[in-house]
Amino acid sequence: MHIALEIGSALIVLLPIVGIARAYRGTHSRRLALALTAFIILEARLLGLVLLHTVIATDHYFEEVLDFGGDLAVVTAFAMAFLYGTRWSFGRIDAEQS
Fold first, then answer.
1. What angle do CA 15, 43, 68 make, to 5 degrees?
2. Which has the closest alpha carbon to 30: 87, 72, 75, 74?
3. Residues of the chain with pLDDT under 70
């Protein structure tokens, strides 16, 4: 069941990847490039977990470390895409508090 959910998730993530890639091809926007990168990192994480659970034999500790590292990579990529996409910066906070 766990592997089937990961495969299903990987298939679902292909939808925004295709949509963003088509939009990026027409505009070459940096925001779309960051969003596309974030979704590709998510897809790589999902496919990596499918491989870990089906093909690659590892102990549970190593699997959990890789899973946690993948989670951190995905969260970092989406945070960067969101912050860049909203034009957030540290300077804006300082200007608002003055």
1. 140
2. 87
3. 89-98
pTM: 0.79
Report CA torsion sign: 20, 25, 26, 32.
positive
- DSSP conformation letters of 30-46: HHHHHHHHHHHHHHHHH
* Structure confidence at residue 24 (pLDDT): 94
Taking CA 73 as the corner, what is the angle to CA 71 and CA 75, rounded to the nearest 5 degrees?
70
**Please, what's the b/e burial string for 79-97 (b: 16 or more CB within 10 A of its CB; e: otherwise)?**
eebeeeeeeeeeeeeeeee
Q: What is the pLDDT of residue 87?
A: 79
CA distances from 47 to 3, 42, 72, 82, 93 (A): 10, 9, 16, 23, 38
Give the per-residue pLDDT at 53.
Answer: 81
